User: What shape does this take?
Amino acid sequence: MIDISTKITGIKLDTCVFNTAGPADVTLEELEVIAKSGSSAITMKSCTLEPRNGNPEPRYADLEYGSINSMGLPNLGYKAYIKFSKILKKKYPKKPIVASISGLTLEDNVVIFKAFNDTPVDIIEFNPGSPNTIGKPIVGYDPQDLDRLLDAVSKVTKKPYGVKLPPYFDLVHYEQIANVIKRYPVKFITCVNSIGNGLVINPYTEKPFIKPKGGLGGIGGKYIKFAALANVKVFSDIFKGKIQVIGVGGIYSGIDAFEFILAGAFAVQIGTAFLQKGPGIFKKVQEELKDFMALKGYKKLSDFRGKLKTLDK
Ligand code: RRO
Assistant: This one.
């Protein structure tokens, strides 16, 4: 038997593969699709204090190797997700629920974190800086801002929580962010959010693919896999398992998942591929991961997790 179960913040997941916050997880109907799928947890859309319609459409496009989005945090407001968590826990008691919090201000985040204390949500993923909230910076690129937010939410939360981070491209930035995160009881980080502010152009119409921000949006899917893998690897090396790393970015196959775990990930999330391939993607990735592990002679994730080899002799 090949075991691909894992634990995140001490909570058991039957497999290490589940959905990422964002795609197709806004409404209760969408969340029930995830609950009934092979996804090993139910991650809900990042929520704000008040409901939001999000940015003007078109705001998402499928691309040959991934996606671009500038959704602008459309969500039903945190109270709806508290209600949904209660319904989902009753109907699907075996599936851990992940709430994603993305308040627009420090005060909003404090209110939302407090409110989730008294809910059946198992894990909280703090998403402090979407790339697409017009007029707002990506918080993960500002260590001082991140520090301020983690300080505030750490004081009020009673749930185990982690932070979803944007991708970093310079080794100095990894150190700066890790030094902030280490100061707080952050149990995991999720690497990576979409690569912010990309531009996809249709050369025939001479227009961008999406409307908000003159066409700028977060890039996901296969385009970002190598950036995501690097982020998982570097942070895993820094945190050495004391803070777990969850990988996301361009996972379409079991071998993709295998690579993320080899780089150090304790679990992987699926975003763009879920939108493009539907809820069957979770079982497909899980089965392919097991097949590849069997081929390699691995029986459990810890047999190879974080054990990327070097080219040194
Ligand atoms: O809703 C969005 O536009 C969005 C969010 Br909150 C995020 O974290 N990442 C992303 O690519 N889009």
